[in-house]
Amino acid sequence: MSEIIVRHAEPDDAAALHQMYSQPETYSDTLQLPYPSLQRWQEKLKNTPEGQHMLVACIDGQIVGQCFVALNAPARRRHTATFGLGVDVRHRGKGVAKAMMTAIVDLCDNWLQVDRIELTVYADNQAAIALYEKFGFVTEGRGVRFGVRNGVQVDALFMARLKD
To answer: Which of 114, 124, 113, 118 shows the shortest CA–CA distance to 147?
Structure first.
C-alpha cells in the first residue's frame, strides 16, 4: 500500500477538494452543503483565517482527504481547538483519517499549546466515532436534531480529548 502524506493545503488544491466534497458520501458526513463551488474552495485556501490550519492527505500525489484545526480565539478558550475532516469515498478504509488524526493531535499537543481538542460528529457515524475513541476522545454530550442530512434531522455527539 502506498504511503499517506499529510501536508499543508495549498491554493492549487482547490479543484481536488472541490471534487472530493462534491461526493454525496463525503458532504453527508460533514456540515458541508451539496454542490460546492470551486470558487468557494479557492477562497478558503487563499484566505485561511488566523488560527486555522488546513491540511490535506495524499496518496501517490493525489489528494484523498482534508482536515482543518481551528484554535479558539477568546482569551479564556485559547487552550482549546476544534477540527473537521473528510475522506474521499474511494479511499476510505485505507488509514487516511487515521493519518490526519495523527497530524491533528501532533499539531495540538506539540506545537499549538492546545490542551483540549473538541469535535462534533453525527451520532450514526460509527466508523468516525471508533476512530476518535482510539485517539482518546470521549463523548461529553448529545445534540438532538443537531443537523439536517438528506432532509432528516440527525443527532450529533460532542466529543473531546484532554491532553495528559
So the answer is: 124
Q: How far apart are the first and last CA of the chain?
A: 33
- In tens, the pLDDT along 85-141 reads 999 999 999 999 999 999 999 999 999 999 999 999 999 999 999 999 999 999 999
User: Phi/psi class of residue 4: alpha, beta or left (left: φ > 0; alpha: ψ in -120 to 50)?
Assistant: beta
Residue (of 72, 77, 136, 70) closest to 102 by Cα position: 136
- DSSP E strands: which ranges in 78-137? 80-87, 116-122
Number of other residues whose CB lies within 10 A of the CB of residue 72: 16
Characterize 129-162 residue by residue with b for buried, 16 or more Cβ atoms within 10 angstroms of its Cβ, and e for exposed: bebbeeeebeeeeeeeebeeeeeeebebbebbbe
Is the whole-model pTM more than 0.85? yes
Angle between helical axes of 96-110 and 126-134 (0-180°, round to 10):
40
